[in-house]
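Reminder to self: tokens first, then the designed residues, so the page reads top to bottom the way the pipeline ran.
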């Protein structure tokens, strides 16, 4: 029977999966082939990626307790996939003062956060000093907090305003408390695609220049890809090759994070004919191919529960991913593009989801040091255990049903 399962895998896909599991490096054509896998090929791809994950990263699934801080949504760049940016005169435009950022960070730390992730729109009225002031203000209040902040697009904006040499500018931010940077604003690192989806954003060469310079001054970063819009699988394959080459050179990527395009509330889908985001199969292929293609250079593959939702995130854990990402506490960038999987996933819920697929939850730092292991399921808090359904009296049940109906009616 098992032989029949394998017999349905096409020989070419089988050959590439064999090579990956033997530790041989895949080429972009191999990645493109796998990114089209369907049916038995897709199952084999997921299984191969899961085996590679077990070899390279073990059975722990890590997560980080973090809070997103989006200090302003005013942005002039105009990326077609973005539902977050506002014009400064829009009624819902905001620009949080420092006291608000400090208050939100204090709240996050009280809830166990070890990191804040700061990203925002590009407001032309702000310059390089604003980024540094945020770092200095937060570090003055919370010296041991890890600040993961400023996409390459924000760093490009600040650097151009600063007039400094790029390495000096990045060191200037590091000295003020910058710990690591998000490798976002990557989307697809191919100018053919960038000129369609975000022509006013930094192009591939500049993204690579900034990330390479950051790594060289000791600012590590994540690596990302945004897929499921107008790109072809060859673009994604070349993107992965570029990230892998940069990692061979610098060793600065802490993890790779595939990010599915959220389509509902932006012009890329509604007016420019993009696909409506990734399908379930595409999400799983992307995670699995990232695992196999980037090995052994990048061993942490994170899936995005914000984009996929918790249940598909669990399947991604069985398809090559070993990291659950962050709790986020306040997610607005994906939500305002139409994502509806919530803004916060409490650490306890992450632990339950991880345990549910037979793996061990581990709280980590931004740079993947283990902060706390949760080896023993018996130590899980009662909220993680299956509960006996409570007996409700008739009147209580009716009251709860009426309250729920009223809530649903209010939402309509
Ligand atoms: S993705 Fe970032 S840079 Fe692009 S419009 Fe949105 S906030 Fe601005």
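Designed residues (412 positions):
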């Amino acid at each position: 029977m098992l032989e029949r399962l394998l017999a349905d895998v096409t020989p070419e896909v089988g050959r590439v999966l064999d090579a990956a599991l033997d530790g041989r490096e895949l080429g972009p054509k191999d990645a493109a082939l796998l990114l089209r896998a369907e049916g038995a090929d897709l199952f084999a791809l997921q299984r191969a990626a899961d085996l590679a994950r077990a070899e390279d990263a073990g059975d722990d699934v890590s997560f980080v307790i973090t809070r997103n801080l989006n200090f302003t949504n005013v942005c002039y760049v105009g990326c077609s996939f973005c539902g977050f940016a506002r014009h400064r005169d829009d009624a819902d435009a905001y620009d949080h003062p420092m006291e608000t950022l400090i208050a939100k960070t204090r709240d996050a730390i009280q809830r166990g956060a070890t990191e804040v992730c700061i990203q925002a729109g590009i407001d032309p009225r702000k310059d390089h000093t604003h980024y540094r002031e945020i770092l200095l203000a937060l570090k003055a209040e919370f010296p041991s907090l890890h600040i993961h902040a400023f996409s390459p697009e924000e760093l490009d904006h600040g650097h151009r305003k600063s007039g400094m040499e790029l390495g000096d500018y990045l060191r200037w931010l590091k000295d003020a408390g910058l710990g690591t940077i998000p490798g976002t604003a990557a989307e697809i690192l191919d100018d053919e695609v960038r000129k369609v989806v975000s022509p006013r954003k930094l192009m591939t060469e500049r993204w690579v220049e900034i990330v390479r310079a950051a790594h060289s001054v000791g600012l590590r970063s994540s690596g990302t890809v945004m897929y499921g819009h107008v790109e072809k699988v060859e673009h994604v394959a070349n993107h992965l090759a570029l990230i892998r080459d940069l990692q061979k050179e610098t060793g600065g990527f802490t993890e790779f994070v595939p990010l599915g395009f959220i389509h509902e509330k932006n012009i890329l889908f509604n007016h420019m004919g993009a696909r409506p985001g990734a399908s379930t199969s595409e999400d799983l292929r992307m995670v699995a191919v990232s695992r196999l293609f980037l090995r052994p250079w990048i061993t942490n593959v994170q899936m995005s529960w914000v984009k996929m939702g918790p249940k598909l995130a669990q399947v991604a854990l069985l398809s090559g991913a070993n990291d659950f990402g962050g709790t986020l506490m306040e997610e607005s960038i994906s939500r305002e593009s139409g994502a509806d999987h919530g803004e916060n996933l409490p650490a306890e819920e992450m632990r339950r989801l991880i345990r549910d697929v037979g793996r061990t939850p581990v709280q980590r730092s931004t740079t993947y040091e283990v902060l706390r292991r949760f080896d023993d399921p018996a130590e899980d808090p009662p909220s993680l255990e299956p509960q006996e359904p409570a007996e409700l009296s008739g009147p209580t049940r009716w009251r709860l049903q009426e309250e729920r109906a009223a809530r649903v009616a209010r939402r309509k």
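The pocket of iron/sulfur cluster is lined by residues 75, 77-79, 82, 84-85, 121-122, 153, 198 (CB under 6 Å).
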